[in-house]
Amino acid sequence: MNPLSIRCRLGDIMRERGLQNKDVVDLTGVSRNTITSLAGNATKRIDYDTLGALCRGLGVTPGDLLEYMPNVKENFE
User: Fold this and answer.
1) pLDDT tens across 8-46, in order?
2) Domain 6-68 is in which class?
3) What is the spatial distance between Cα 52 and Cα 42, in angstroms, rounded to a whole number?
4) How much of the chain exceeds pLDDT 70, in percent?
5) Of 8, 21, 56, 70, whose CA is between 20 and 30 Å from 50?
């Protein structure tokens, strides 16, 4: 069975809107470290509270933030 890959599009959304980490922190209340990790796809999970805060603050849906990428192989250890 091939692993599923989900990519966070926060970095893309930030670039499209000209937002910096500080802007997203101010809009969402999510910590700067979390924003940095999510924007850089350097995390393996996201809490529902964080996802909800991002959706409210940025006016997006979970489907706007998360992208399913089939056939992407990851190294799970």
Assistant:
1) 999 999 999 999 999 999 999 999 999 999 999 998 899
2) mainly alpha
3) 19
4) 87
5) 70
**In the chain, where are the structural domains located?**
6-68
> Which two three-digit tokens encode residue 1?
């069975």
pLDDT at 77: 44
- Distance from CA of residue 17 to its chain's centroid? 15
By the 8 A CB rule, do 12 and 39 touch? no
> What is the C-alpha to C-alpha distance for residues 14 and 65, in angstroms, rounded to an integer?
11
3-state SS class at 46: coil
pLDDT in tens, 36-70: 999 999 988 999 999 999 999 999 999 999 999 88
